Amino acid sequence: MRLVIAECTVDYDGRLTAHLPRALRLIMVKADGCVAIHSDGGAYKPLNWMTAPNRLVIHPAGTEVDGEKQAEDQWMVISPKDETLTITIHEIHSDTQHDLGDDPSLQKDGVEAHLQELLAVDPEQLEPGMSLIRREFPTEIGPVDLLCRDADNQVIAIEIKRRGEIDGVEQLTRYLDFLNRNSDLAPVRGMFVAQEIRPQAKTLASDREIDWVEIDYDELRGIERPQQKLF
Fold first, then answer.
1. CATH code for the domain of 93
2. Is residue 122 part of a domain?
C-alpha cells in the first residue's frame, strides 16, 4: 500500500463530474489498484475514489499530456468504462509504501456462514439448473464464496452477505476481474446474494451487470413462520 500526504487538486469525470479544490489530503493506493482520497474527517469514507479494476498512469512534471506540458505531477486513474480520476500533485509532504502481506479476510458471522453452507448444498435455490463447482474458490485477493455453473454451463461467482451493501458489490467486482483473466473459467458472471440488499447496492450491481438475489434465511432452512392469528 502506498500512502501519500500531499497538497492536491482532484477532478472526476465519468457518469458525472466532481471537483475537489486544492487542499492537504491523504492519497491511498492499494495493491489491488484501488485509489482513495481522504481528508482529516468524515470517518472512514473517502472524498473520492476509484475501485479496482483500473489503471494508474503517472505523468511527472514536464511531460506532455494531450499536447500540454504539465507544470506539476499528474496522476490519472482510469477505469475500464473510461471514467477518470485526475489528481494534480502540488506538493508532497510524505510518501511511504508498506507491504501488508496476505489478508486472512473477514470471518463471516454465523448467519453468513450458514447461508453459504445451505446454498452450496442446493444452489438451485438461487437459479434453476445451477450446480456447485466449489465453495471458497481461491483468488489472488481472497476466496469467492461459491463458484457455480448455470444451466448453460457458464461460470457464476457468488458473494453472500447477511446484509447487502455497496462494499459487497465492490468486493464481488474485484473477484470477477481476477476470475475473468482465467481462460479456463471466462466468461464469469456475478451474483450478489443477501437476506436484504440496500437500494444503492442493487443499483450498483445492475450497473455492473451483476445479478442480485434476496433470500429468506428461515425459508432456506425449511422453517415455516407461524401464521399470525387474531385470536
1. 2.70.180.20
2. yes
Domain count, the chain: 2
pLDDT digits (tens, 9 = 90+) for 152-162: 999 999 999 98
- Residue 209, amino acid: E
**Whether residue 125 is found in the same domain as residue 175:** yes
Average per-residue pLDDT in the chain? 88
Higher pLDDT, 223 or 186: 186
Same domain, 211 and 138: yes
**Each residue's pLDDT tens digit, 21-78:** 999 999 999 988 889 999 988 767 899 988 888 889 999 988 887 788 888 999 999 9
pLDDT at 110: 62
Q: Are residues 147 and 212 in the same domain?
A: yes
Could you tell me the CATH number of the domain that includes residue 212? 3.40.1350.10
- Considering the domain boundaries, does residue 231 fall inside one? no
For the chain, give the DSSP string: -EEEEEEEEEEEESSSEEEEEEEEEEEEE-TTS-EEEE-S-STT--SEEEPSS-EEEEE-TT-EETTEE-SSEEEEEE-TT--EEEEEEEEEEEEEE--------PPP-HHHHHHHHHHHH-GGGTSTT-EEEEEEE--TT--EEEEEE-TTS-EEEEEEEEEE-HHHHHHHHHHHHHHTT-TTT-SEEEEEEEEEE-HHHHHHHHHTT-EEEE--HHHHTTPPPPPP---
Taking the CA of residue 49 as centre, how many other CA atoms within 13 Å lie in the half-sphere pointing to its CB? Answer: 19
Domain residues for the domain of 181 are: 110-220
pTM, 2 dp? 0.57
